[in-house]
From TrEMBL:
Alphabetized Pfam families for the sequence: Ank_2
Protein name: Uncharacterized protein
Alphabetically ordered keywords of this record: ANK repeat, Repeat
Alphabetized InterPro entries for the sequence: Ankyrin-SOCS_box_domain, Ankyrin_rpt, Ankyrin_rpt-contain_sf
The organism of origin for this protein: Eruca vesicaria subsp. sativa (Garden rocket)
ANK repeat residue intervals: 59-91
Similarity-based family: Belongs to the ankyrin SOCS box (ASB) family.
Length: 152
């Protein structure tokens, strides 16, 4: 991923990384690795962030949101192994499962997220989570399959 692409993601999400250059560099690497699917770089970035796998951008997107949205299963696996929270919501009230369904409907990621749930109540809560558009994950999946949802 090009540095300009990472800058655009960070700027788009309103992060003022200029004020803390060390966090800036680490967060940039973290975001770039998650979005590009570079699991080796992601592991290093997590270590550089002292294991803070739920570090978020201003819109509350995390590396797990991005890895789910762009279909990077190995990155999702690593983030979950390192303790990423599956229920943190972004600014649109979407959870990671929304993102996996909104991408290309990444079935393996959806299955992984369900398998990591602590029980049926947790799965039910994830399925019933509604974003700001009033969509559940099932709505997201149907929009994706009908071609009405586009990932930018």
């Amino acid at each position: 991923m090009e540095e300009d692409d990472v800058d655009a993601i960070i700027e788009e999400n309103g992060v003022d990384y200029e004020s803390d250059s060390e966090l800036s560099s680490n967060l940039r690497d973290f975001v770039a690795a998650a979005q590009s699917g570079d699991v080796v770089a992601l592991r290093t970035a997590i270590d550089n962030l002292n294991g803070r796998v739920d570090e978020t951008l201003e819109d509350n997107d995390s590396a797990l949101h991005l890895a789910c949205l762009y279909g990077h299963l190995p990155c999702v696996q690593l983030l979950l192994e390192r303790g990423a929270n599956m229920e943190i919501k972004d600014e649109d009230e979407a959870i990671r499962l929304h993102d996996a369904c909104a991408g290309e409907g990444y079935l393996e990621i959806v299955e992984l997220l369900f398998s990591r749930a602590s029980g049926p109540e947790y799965v039910k809560r994830m399925i019933e989570t509604i974003d700001v558009e009033g969509d559940t994950v099932l709505h997201q999946q149907s929009k994706t399959r009908m071609g009405r949802h586009q990932v930018n």
